[in-house]
Write a structure and sequence with these properties.
The chain is α+β, with helices and mostly antiparallel strands. The chain has helices spanning 8-20, 48-61; strands at residues 3-5, 25-32, 35-42. Helix content is 38%, strand content 27%.
Amino acid sequence: QVGYFESEKSVGTLNDKVTKAGFSAKTKHAQNNDKNITKVMVGPFESKDKAQQALPKVREQIKNDAFIIKG
């Protein structure tokens, strides 16, 4: 996951950054403290190992505090 936002504009900006870095972007709607948010994720990857291999590039080119989630 590389971020979550209430603003669709922010979601779009991060989605563009993900695709420009050569990855697929995926979004998921959720709630956080009674607020509607959209999570932005990179992937999917074939395996956790593939995600681990991509994580340094994701952190360098997209968001330095990105992390791996299952799903």
